[in-house]
Design goal:
By secondary structure, the chain is of the alpha/beta class. It is built from six helices and six strands. The mean pLDDT is 89.
Length: 164
């Protein structure tokens, strides 16, 4: 879960942002992470470190067992004009999944590698449909939820409380 080796943290720092936090459940990942951020090892969202102006959760929630509680903690940790940027793999049809695998193949990923990754993620990565995210985010009090990027079975949402 989380910031892994800090690639996004590093990019944000290079863009001039500071007061950055990275959260990951893996001590090994954090040991290799970008070290100019506050790094937190946790299975939970660290709402006690807020308020946050922006929370970025890229490819995190599909590994979290209680996603709604995690999103509630994110919402409760945001500053009044704070936003959540959320990227997730979605539940998709067989056709959409095949388009995703075609994209991988077109970018040099071999069939055996695709199958190995599918097997490794089975029972670990759980997808939900886009409607679950839209309904849950609005149910938690986000007043504006926009799709800002979508590519085959992945979507990035921008959620805010005051229509920011």
């Amino acid at each position: 879960m989380g910031s892994a080796i800090g690639t996004t943290l590093h990019a944000l720092h290079q863009a001039g942002l500071n007061n950055l936090y990275g959260v990951d459940s893996s001590a090994e990942m954090l040991a290799r992470s970008f070290d100019q951020a506050s790094l937190i090892q946790s299975e939970q969202f660290p709402l006690e470190h807020g308020p946050f102006d922006v929370v970025i959760a890229n490819w995190v929630l599909h590994f979290i067992k209680d996603r709604e509680a995690y999103l509630r903690d994110v919402k409760n940790s945001l500053s009044p004009n704070g936003v959540l940027i959320l990227t997730e793999k979605l539940t998709a049809s067989a056709l959409a999944n095949e388009l995703y695998y075609d994209f991988k193949r077109a970018n040099g990923v071999r069939e055996k590698e695709i199958e190995i990754k599918k097997q490794r993620l089975e029972g670990v990565l759980t997808t939900y449909p886009l409607s679950w995210y839209l309904d849950t985010l609005t149910g938690l009090g986000f007043t504006q939820v926009d799709v800002i990027n979508a590519n085959t079975v992945f979507v990035t949402l921008l959620a805010s409380c005051d229509g920011v």
